[in-house]
Amino acid sequence: MKKSAWLPAVIAPVVVAGAVAAPVIANAANDPIAGTNPSAAAVIASIAKSSDAQYSGKLSQTSALGLPELPTGSGGSSLEGDASDVLGLLIASHTARVYVDGPDKQRVQLTQQLAEQDVVRNGSDVWAWDSKERTATRVTLPTDTAKDPRDGTTTPADIAEQAIDAITPTTTVSKPTEVSVAGHDAWQITLTPKSSDTLVGAVRLAVDQQTGLPLRASVEAAGADDPAVQVGFTSLDYGAPAARLFDFSPPSNAKVTEKDLSVAGSHTKGEHGDHRGTPSGDEPTFTGTGWSTIAELPAGTVDRSGLEGEASGLLDQLTKPVDGGRAVQTSLVSVYLTDDGRVLAGAVPVASLVDAAK
């Protein structure tokens, strides 16, 4: 689902990369959070009770990552077009409608000029629809994930959960403060890295005092006053959305691809017949700890020699030459492509990636 990751799902895992374990908060699960002066642990624990929530609302996402503006509509290679689309979602601000009916029914609807993108989950079926490309992808989830709401989209709850996983001795957690988000009273906690080697300054989470639903999540770069990435509700109404919102049938002229993840291996059925995927075995390795963790993918992960024309030009626009390869540093995360084909990434300066690659 290349375009279903509407919000910066690429960034959030790297921002909190290296989390080893969350603190024990089970004893705080019964602490009230709607009262006065709850503990940070109680606010964090309250998020779990929002998994069965029913609501509809509008999300707003803003990004200020320092990425360059990219040309659009050039009609170049599919690689260039796909990358430009994803980067466009990261660079610009967007709004989306969100409908949730418990843990296994969700719909995220992103409307752009003359086009619409949807991700619809109903039980084990997930549809991704792109009206501009007239493409629909149906994914059948494994039964053991039927109650897991993750479907490739990113909401405040997703970012909050990943940030919570980063609460280790490397992070300072603030006392909750009262804020209002989309007309709802919330408790906000701030997670601040103790390390000075990370690009991340703070992660702020606002949690509904009554339901435990994360209402807003933001990530600030070190030394910055405004969020580099923020996603939050601008309107929110509790109650079950209409059942029809979770039913999706692609138009008759749509190009449909099916992926069955409920069996061993990935079973894809599309216009070129059936294919069963096998794991590549290329697993990342990690160095460093906490917020300064660096992930490295082995040589051969990216074949830069095969890039031509606009795809090569896009890479040149995004990256700059550094010792041993090319790299890009945003306000929150850096990526380093080595000349021997390795890829290193982390919420650290490019210089740290270059040193780690030696």
Using only C-alpha atoms, the radius of gyration works out to 21 Å
Shape: globular
One letter per element, helices H and strands E, the order comes to HHEHEEEEEHEEEEEEEEEEEHEEEEH
Q: Give the helix tally.
A: 6
Distance between the termini: 35 Å
Strand portion, in percent? 35-45%
Major sheet details: 15 strands, mixed
- What's the β-strand tally? 21
Arithmetic mean pLDDT: 77
Q: Poorly predicted ranges (pLDDT <50, ≥5 residues)?
A: 1-30, 72-84, 146-153, 265-280
User: Which structural class fits the helix and strand makeup?
Assistant: mainly beta
* Helix coverage percent: 10-25%
Commentary on this structure:
With 358 residues, the protein is mainly β. Helices cover 15% and strands 37% of the residues. It has helices spanning 11-15, 40-46, 78-91, 156-164, 309-318, 350-357, and strands spanning 54-63, 94-101, 105-112, 115-122, 125-130, 135-140, 171-173, 177-181, 184-193, 200-208, 214-221, 227-238, 255-260, 266-270, 273-277, 285-287, 294-297, 320-322, 325-329, 334-338, 343-346. The strands form 2 sheets. The chain has a 15-stranded mixed sheet that branches. Strands 16-17-21-20-19-18 form a 6-stranded antiparallel sheet. α3 (78-91) runs parallel beside α5 (309-318). The longest helix is centred in the N-terminal third of the chain and has 14 residues, at 78-91. It is globular and about 55 Å long.
